[in-house]
Amino acid sequence: MTTTRRQLWVLALLTLVWGLNWPAMKVGVSGWPSSPSPFPPLTFRALSMFFGLPVLAAALLALKVPLTLPRAHWGGVARLTMTNMLVWHVVVILSIPHLSSGRAAILGYSMPIFSALWGVLVFGDRFTLRQGFGVAAAALGIVLLLAHEFGKLAGAPLAAMAMLAAAAMWAWGTHQLRRSTLPVPLLTIVFWMTAITAVAMMVAALLFERERWVQPAPHVVASIAYNAIGVFGFAHAAWFYLARSMPPVASSISVMLIPVLGTFAGAFFLREALHWQDFAAMVLMVLAIASVLLKPAGTGR
User: Fold this and answer.
1) In sequence order, what are the residues at sequence separation of 6 or more whose Cβ sits closer than 8 angstroms to the Cβ of residue 177?
2) CA distances from 296 to 142, 289, 290 (A)
3) Global pTM value
């Protein structure tokens, strides 16, 4: 396995954007700091996606990537959308009002553990010693970060279990995407997966949240703008690039710093409490990332 400088730069920007997005989402949908009521979560996500689509389309046009998706490939893209985006986004945005932003990120980014398990159980993947160490370190980091949250999670068991289920689905989708043989540019697939998810989210918002629609407060507008430009205009395309160009274990573990950043950002911006487990987990996550990104000494890998 080799890691290019371009992949490392994309990974660094992705980590920053997605890590800061967890407290940003919490701010957008929880009614913080002084809104009379929380902003409807499905509506929040749908607006973020619809405003993000022009940004993503402009990037594709600048890169001369075609937007056209041949009809023969609609079914394949729809299946990838279900496992890579739709389930994940619906579950996350409905769960985050009930969990701290940092702990929601940690539950969501248990995905590398599921990715490794899917690879071994279904696709016949084999761990190298370094990859096995990385998975173990990431798993221990998640356990440590959740150690002080069992009381809170007991108060929101459905949200916690739903986040874990969504992480497992996302991990399955990562394997599907990597093994996809669709003769369509990756960014074109990303654009249409985002568009399909945006329409589905807006339909759900119309059905379940229309009576709760209100004028968004300034902090909600700022959160929507951050999601539109940073997450849907950049981060999703960046993630799918990494997921397709790096081995599944490497691409998934390599973004494990995102929940750590989300945890510390939540502590800084939202005053969510930190404990020694948070700092221990930081060390474990860095070790997990290093185990799959760094080249062994004395080899050409």
Assistant:
1) 80, 84, 240, 243, 244
2) 26, 13, 10
3) 0.84
pLDDT tens figures, 39-91: 999 999 999 999 999 999 998 898 899 999 999 999 999 999 999 999 999 99
Whole-number Cα distances in Å, 127 to 130, 135, 203, 285: 8, 10, 42, 18
Write the CB contacts of 232 (distance below 8 Å, at least 6 apart in sequence).
48, 49, 51, 52, 53, 55, 56, 194
- Indicate whether 100 belongs to any domain: yes
**DSSP label at 66?**
-
Angle at 265 between CA 259 and CA 267, to 5 degrees: 105
Question: Are 135 and 252 in contact, with CB atoms under 8 Å apart?
Answer: no
Q: What is the mean pLDDT of residues 150-156?
A: 64
Q: Which alpha helices (H) appear in the chain, and where do they start and end?
A: 5-30, 41-62, 74-81, 87-95, 101-108, 111-121, 129-146, 150-155, 157-178, 186-208, 218-226, 236-245, 248-253, 257-270, 276-293
Q: Which domain covers residue 10, as residue numbers?
A: 5-30+38-293
Output the pLDDT for position 70: 94
The residue assigned the tokens 């696709």 is 123
Kindly list the distances between the CA atom of residue 202 and the CA atoms of 54, 121, 207, in Å, as whole numbers in the listed order.
17, 36, 9
For the chain, give the number of residues: 301
Tell me which residue of 241, 265, 249 sits closest to 126, measured CA to CA: 249
Encoding tokens for residue 98? 């009930």
170-189 confidence digits (pLDDT tens): 999 989 988 889 999 988 99
Residue 301 in any domain: the answer is no
How many folded domains does the chain comprise? Answer: 1
Residues whose CB is less than 8 angstroms from the CB of residue 42 and which lie 6 or more positions away in sequence, other chains included:
90, 93, 94, 201, 204, 205, 208, 209
Sign of CA dihedral 78, 81, 86, 87: positive
Whether 299 maps to a domain, the answer reads no
Residue 223 lies in a domain: yes
What one-letter code names the amino acid at 277?
Q
